[in-house]
Specification:
The complex is a heterodimer of chains A (about 200) and B (about 375). Chain A is of the alpha/beta class. Chain A has seven helices and five strands; from the N terminus they run E-H-E-H-E-H-E-H-E-H-H-H. In chain A, helix 5 (about 110-160) packs across helix 7 (about 180-195). Chain B has a domain at about 5-85 and about 215-270 and about 325-355: Periplasmic binding protein-like II (D-Maltodextrin-Binding Protein, domain 2, 3-Layer(aba) Sandwich), CATH 3.40.190.10. Chain B is built from 18 helices and 13 strands. In chain B, the strands form three sheets. A six-stranded mixed sheet of chain B has the order 2-1-3-10-4-13, sandwiched between helices. In chain B, a hairpin with a 6-residue loop joins strand 11 (about 280-285) and strand 12. In chain B, helix 1 (about 15-25) packs across helix 11 (about 230-250), helix 8 runs parallel beside helix 9 and helix 15 (about 310-320) packs across helix 16. The chains are: A alpha/beta (about 200), B alpha/beta (about 375). The interface between A and B is medium-sized, with 30 and 33 residues.
Chain lengths: ~200, ~375
């Protein structure tokens, strides 16, 4: 690799969305040589074919252990890699493990050139998990809504209530029993299933 | 109750003492509030233990030593006050390689010298015909699996770095890789050998207890400085794991232990496979042939007390295969990872004197001598010592 050319970066991630977010960030920052691997079969062979300077892998990926053998010199390993972090970088390890990503650097790439890549990677990974959390919350709020709507429907039918009355009954029962409205709604659905 | 503990583990049957200690209430009885965290890679377990996200972990014994020596990663001194298991791995080969080895076999097929010599003839024939070298999967560069495979094949004259390929594969991918022909064989812990046999893509060629009578496999690992600050917690953990191991050792408890371990958030495989493993009764061939060995996986009395001679043997393998060079200081550091003193004091026992002279019991080479690793390694024809 020429000292000034853009380092070749491989992203190993089974999540296409997260990989796309990271890839986009790297390109915006001027790192043009980015390749995404999502298929874990023959991972080492693929990586050798690409011959990258930096490998980024998510920590949910069991294939992280496959990369660890690149530290070794053997028949299977042609170009040994090093971990970016050294003894003095415990803050970097902490930050990247917290974010859920790990970086492997092929020997020869200068440390000051790695830092911006890793920082960017950590911030994109953190942004992705925030997004994921929001998505999960929205999803579960939507699920709750469905359950409550169905419970209201049952109450309206069985007790001849209006929708507002059904909701008030659910809410007051939840308050009395110190439970969530969705839990009361769920028990109504369960009971009505049993009594069918 | 002590402050909550986070303990990492990989879903393998040799995590049994740890999982049963928590799920059967032995840890709570010691006043410990433990959350077990299932992990997907040894690298993750190592890193999370090193930076303190985990207080303790189910860890490959050689990783605990490598971490203390700063090999392959940052140097973080680790203490191993409890040995979770001895042995427990097996070598499984594809039906094609099995047939090739059996065609060359000359003697008892459970004798590892006989199979290693047969393997060397298979390897030589492939070389002559211009076929690709055989590929063997193992779980980590610093793993017993790596050293056991190497020890075995080198005894038959196969150079593990020149004549075949050794590749790291995550345990859950082993069976698929064998089925798809990406690897011809692998060495891995339970339950993956049995899974390969059960679905008909592999034959168990050896239990590792054929190769070494006693091999430290996984340890309960803590950071050394953490153990110094929390001696009571470490002692309580040792006692909880000991009670759990005692429980698992009793044949009448195995069904319950297997049921606990089988749950999806723990090991997540069939309870029947787990129980067969704990009983040392494994199906070794897709045709249903089973083989029994009380030494297949040892949990409890014989296994639990960490033995520094085991740590020295693992260190000697790192030297033999060029992962590090031999130094008396490093040997001392490696041995000091295994902490029988913490084990004895937690259980209120007198310190035992050293056991038999050779606690390893390898099928080939001279008896292991922890005090003369250089001389010991000189007796082996194939080594790749660091120059």
């Amino acid at each position: 690799m020429g000292a000034e050319s853009s380092p070749k970066i491989v992203i190993v991630d089974e999540s296409p969305i997260r990989a796309a977010i990271l890839e986009e960030g790297l390109r915006e920052a001027g790192f043009t040589g980015v390749v995404h691997i999502s298929e874990m079969q023959s991972l080492l062979t693929r990586i050798y074919a690409l011959d990258p300077d930096v490998i980024l892998i998510d920590l949910e990926n069991p294939s992280r252990d496959v990369l660890e053998q690149m530290f070794q010199v053997s028949r299977a390993v042609r170009r040994p890699i090093a971990m970016f972090v050294d003894q003095s970088d415990s803050a970097s390890i902490q930050a990247s493990v917290d974010a859920g990503v790990s970086a492997y650097i092929v020997d020869g790439l200068k440390k000051e050139r790695i830092k911006p890549i890793l920082d960017l990677c950590i911030s994109r990974f953190n942004a992705f998990s925030k997004l994921q959390d929001e998505l999960d919350r929205t999803k579960s709020a939507l699920e709750d809504r469905k359950v409550i709507d169905r419970a209201k429907g049952i109450l309206m039918k069985l007790k001849g209530m209006t929708e507002d009355e059904a909701y008030v009954l659910l809410r007051s029962t939840a308050m009395r029993e110190k439970k969530k409205i969705v839990e009361i709604a769920q028990s109504i659905l369960t009971a009505s299933e049993l009594l069918k | 109750m002590t402050s909550p503990l986070q303990i990492g583990f990989i879903p393998l049957i040799d995590a049994a003492a740890l999982i049963v200690a928590v799920d059967k209430g032995f840890a709570a009885a010691e006043g410990l509030d433990v959350t077990l965290v299932r992990e997907v890679s040894w690298s993750n377990v190592r890193d999370k233990l090193n930076i303190g996200l985990f207080d303790a972990a189910h860890l490959l014994a050689p990783v605990a030593i490598a971490s203390s020596l700063g090999l392959g990663h940052v140097k973080v001194p680790i203490a191993a006050p409890f040995n979770l298991g001895l042995n427990g791995n097996a070598i499984t080969v594809s039906p094609a390689l099995h047939a090739a080895i059996m065609a060359e076999i000359d003697g008892d097929r459970f004798d590892p010298m006989v199979t290693a010599l047969a393997l060397s003839r298979v390897v030589a024939a492939r070389h002559r015909s211009g076929a690709e070298p055989l590929t063997f999967g193992m779980t980590f560069p610093f793993s017993t699996h790596n050293y056991q495979l190497r020890f075995w094949m080198a005894a038959g004259g196969v150079d593990p770095d020149e004549d075949v390929r050794l590749v790291v594969l995550p345990p859950p991918y082993m069976v698929d890789s064998l089925a798809s022909g990406q690897v011809d064989a692998f060495c891995v812990g339970a339950p993956w050998n049995s899974v390969a046999v059960d679905i008909g893509v592999g034959h168990i060629l050896h239990f590792v207890s054929d190769i070494l009578v006693r091999a430290a496999e996984k340890v309960l690992a803590v950071r050394q400085n953490w153990s110094e600050k929390n001696p009571q917690v470490v002692a309580a953990l040792i006692r909880a794991a000991f009670r759990a191991a005692e429980f698992i050792e009793q044949p009448q408890n195995r069904a319950e232990a297997a049921y606990i371990l089988a749950r999806p958030e723990r090991i997540g495989v069939d309870a029947d496979v787990i129980q067969r493993t704990l009983d040392g009764r494994l199906r070794i061939s897709p045709d249903g042939t089973t083989r029994e060995s009380s030494r297949y996986l040892l949990v409890g009395r014989e296994a639990a007390r960490p033995d520094p001679v085991q740590a020295a043997w693992l260190y000697a393998q790192m030297v033999r295969w060029g992962q590090t060079s031999l130094s008396p200081e490093a040997l001392q550091t490696a041995k000091a990872v295994f902490r029988p003193d913490l084990y004895d004091s937690a259980l209120g026992r007198e310190e035992k004197t050293a056991g038999a002279p050779d606690m390893i019991g390898a099928f080939a080479g001279p008896a292991f001598d922890a005090d003369d690793i250089g001389g010991h390694l000189a007796a082996f024809a194939i080594t790749h010592r660091k120059s």
